[in-house]
Amino acid sequence: MPFTPFKLFDSLPIEPRLAEIWRRFESLSFVGNQMPENLMLVDFFARRVEGDLVECGTWKGGMACAMMAAVGASRDYHFFDSFEGLPPADGRDGQRAIDYQADTASPNYFDNCRADYEAFHRLVHSQGVPAERIHIYKGWFRDTLPAFPADRRISVLRLDGDWYESTMDCLTGLWDRVSPGGIVIVDDYDPWDGCARAVHDFLSRRGLASRIYRTPVTYVPYIIKTD
Ligand SMILES: C[S@@+](CC[C@H](N)C(=O)[O-])C[C@H]1O[C@@H](n2cnc3c(N)ncnc32)[C@H](O)[C@@H]1O
Fold this sequence. Notes:
Elements lengths: L15 H10 L9 H14 L3 E5 L5 H10 L5 E5 L13 H8 L7 H4 L3 H8 L9 E5 L2 H4 L9 E6 L4 H11 L3 E9 L6 H13 L7 E2 L6 E4 L3
Parallel strand pairs: 1-2, 1-4, 2-3, 4-5
Antiparallel strand pairs: 5-7, 6-7
Helix pairs in contact: 1-2, 1-3, 2-3, 8-9
The structure holds S-adenosylmethionine.
S-adenosylmethionine binds next to helix 3 and helix 8.
């Protein structure tokens, strides 16, 4: 029988603790009203599955800090970003992505999603997580992902790099490091065609039958690693 995602509830009681974290960090993040359900997923999986938390595509650090606030100081966090903004979109990302990047005067351009490295570094190091538990990888994913330590596993992998190649690089580089039962949140699956294409190309290439699940209210897309 065909399955299409459907809306289960009109609203979900958001744990006050997570709502407070959302309020604190929403101005430093593009995640918007999907942040509370992101945090519910992050909190749930980080507490049940062995491994570190990883975000690929951090921008100013709003979601990175929110994850640290939700899960706490006893875990390791890995943050990957170019701090030079997005790489050029290409045909796999679709015309809308190419047009977005060409329209540098648009109020939605945000300097091509460029964030300042020093400001990010200061911010994530002021959240009460010991410095030795915070790992920042500055540069293009394809160059920095191999530096993810060989002995570490991942409980929560948040992909937020917008484009096809960025998403594919992260899946190729980190999928095998996600613990069984761990979660991969795919932030850009809905807004950007290239991201959705990369997810399906990757799963297909690896012969995986993984489903794209959705949270009930804001439809945050995620995969639970079972294979
Ligand atoms: C939409 S922003 C991330 C939003 C962020 N997670 C938040 O909480 O708002 C996308 C980020 O991905 C980074 N990025 C995209 N592709 C990349 C790549 N191939 N290598 C490194 N960084 C990349 C950009 O620099 C940008 O900061």
